[in-house]
Design a protein that fits this description.
By secondary structure, the protein is mainly β. The protein contains no helices and nine strands.
């Protein structure tokens, strides 16, 4: 089980970072390896609640405007492969793989913003674990549009917005095995 905070950012005009919240559960399945006892390989399948979006680059006079940021709440399903290097008191781990995410609404309304339902991308985690407690950092790079923004002016410009997120998580391992 993990919970954490991170920054999320989109592309122009919502290219300023803002804080987001994430939490989730992962199931790990050991993969048989021919390496020594120090290195474990595993497959990971998870279900996470993540927030993506961004904040508009604005000048000082427009900072109090309510419509300068957007958030897309998603349920994300990471499917990663990873390695864990074991020491006496801790282990280092790294996993990488694709994720599929489904939008579950947004927390604010921006004029001209249309949220998308599905996102697909690539993510990774890097961390350290002490028995049942751990800390990790990760990054998700979205490949699909999480929203489309239409700027209502004389040109009616449209921007397709992708979501990227950097996060730090606190982790707690459930179950008897705490290797």
């Amino acid at each position: 089980m993990s919970v954490g905070l991170g920054t999320r950012v989109s592309n122009a005009p919502f290219d300023n970072a803002m804080f987001g919240f994430n939490m989730g559960v992962d199931a790990l399945k050991p993969i048989k390896s021919f390496a020594n006892d120090k290195v474990d390989t595993y497959g990971l399948l998870g279900l996470h609640f993540v927030q993506k979006g961004g904040k508009q680059s604005t000048d000082f006079m427009e900072m109090m405007n309510d419509n300068n940021s957007f958030t897309v709440n998603q349920l994300s399903i990471p499917i990663h492969a990873g390695v864990r290097y074991n020491f006496k008191r801790c282990s280092f781990f790294f996993d990488l793989g694709p994720y599929l995410a489904f939008g579950v609404g947004g927390s604010n309304d921006v004029d001209g913003l249309e949220r998308k339902v599905v996102d697909l991308g690539l993510g990774f985690n890097l961390g350290i674990k002490f028995k049942k407690f751990g800390i990790s950092m990760g990054y998700d790079k979205g490949f699909m549009n999480i929203a489309q923004y239409t700027q209502f002016d004389e040109l009616n410009d449209k921007s397709n917005l992708k979501g990227d997120a950097f996060y730090m998580n606190l982790r707690w391992t459930l179950g008897k095995k705490s290797k």
